[in-house]
Automatic annotation (TrEMBL):
Domain of life the protein comes from: Bacteria
Name by which UniProt lists this protein: CRISPR type III-B/RAMP module-associated protein Cmr3
Source organism of this protein record: Mesotoga prima
């Protein structure tokens, strides 16, 4: 399939702010910037180009950019990481949770469900993803990245590689984080239980973020060469290209591992209440931590309410005939939530 990719190349660094509610026993860790940030930057650039007041938009422009209750007509999903070396562009996605290596320098493998060992997730009993080795100290490389061609190798059961955290900082970018205190608008006092994180992404030359976009969005933003994104009003160069890949084709296997590349939300938290995804039964899951997602309300000039989603990298092991669904999230599909690629799987631990 052919996909439109929109590339955001920074001059040196980009800063992103994430609002976080800190509660007893809560997890305040955040991941990559959210798609709402990129969508908001594109909308702001379109409004500025049109020379209109954000609080009093024309009906034509409002249909494109939407408002706090309506996402508008633009459709993008991501973000992901790219790196251009000479004329070649490499595209990186969140790697599936549960990739391991038995020995240093050996092949990477993806954990598979054990046929006889069970675990409980969100009150549901599922088969436990398992590493079939007695070697002690084996770690999984959660939070790593996998390049598009390596995803294809994983799907075809060929040797594949990933970028671990150390390699990401060496080849793509480094992140520096700072914590701030949110203030109440009128009183300028610290808002109860509210802090925010500023994450500075310092990219290597030729590296940056990219998103996928539909034809309408590509046509609409074609006149934008630069936009300002994130905090501190940093400019990024915008380019559009078409890439061809088969990694998002749906597997026809009766056992399909669905690997999230964008956040998702389900009615029962990390799992659907009926324990089905795309018409298939969930037999096992390797679930990443939940992430806090907020956005910026252009009209009200304030952060949107925080929601919690299942993080990219989460893997659901399904059994049955998979429906050809582009998104599996029960919410925010207009923002590209619930995107995935699939890998065939089978139980381990059988005689």
């Amino acid at each position: 399939m052919k996909l439109n990719a929109v590339y955001f190349t920074p001059e040196d660094w980009i800063c992103f702010r994430e609002s976080t509610v800190f509660q007893s026993g809560g997890n305040a860790k955040t991941g990559l910037p959210k798609i709402e940030t990129f969508l908001g930057a594109i909308k702001t650039a379109l409004i500025k180009k049109a020379g209109e007041n954000p609080l009093n938009l024309s009906s034509e422009l409002k249909e494109i950019v939407g408002d706090s209750e309506n996402p508008g007509s633009l459709r993008i999903w991501g973000p992901f990481i790219f790196n251009q070396e000479n004329s070649e562009i490499r595209h990186y996605f969140p790697s599936p949770n549960g990739i391991y290596q038995v020995e240093e320098g050996g092949e990477f493998k993806l954990m598979m469900p054990h046929c006889c060992v069970e675990t409980e997730i969100d009150g549901k009993t599922l088969k436990l993803p398992w590493i079939p080795s007695s070697v002690e100290g084996i770690e999984t490389f959660d939070g790593s990245l996998i390049e598009m061609n390596e995803v294809s190798n994983l799907q075809r059961k060929l040797p594949f590689s990933i970028l671990q955290s150390k390699e990401i900082s060496q080849k793509l970018y480094q992140v520096e984080s700072k914590v701030g205190i949110a203030l109440e608008r009128e009183r300028k006092n610290a808002e109860e239980s509210m802090l925010y994180t500023l994450s500075y992404y310092r990219f290597k030359p030729g590296a940056g973020f990219f998103v996928f976009a539909d034809e309408y969005t590509v046509k609409t933003i074609s006149g934008l060469s630069n936009i300002f994104i994130g905090g501190k009003t940093r400019a990024v160069e915008v380019d559009v290209n078409t890439i061809e890949t088969e990694i998002f084709n749906v597997s026809q296997s009766s056992k399909t591992a669905l690997c999230l590349v964008t956040p998702s939300v389900f009615s029962n938290g990390s799992l659907p209440s009926d324990m089905k995804i795309a018409g298939c039964d969930i037999k096992s899951a390797n679930i990443q931590r939940k992430i806090a997602v907020s956005g910026w309300d252009l009209a009200k000039s304030q952060p949107k309410p925080i929601k919690h989603y299942v993080a990219p990298g989460t893997v659901y092991y399904l059994e049955g005939t998979l429906d050809d669904m582009q998104c599996i999230s029960s919410e925010s599909q207009d923002f590209g939530y619930g995107k995935y690629f699939t890998v065939d799987w089978d139980y381990i631990g059988r005689d």
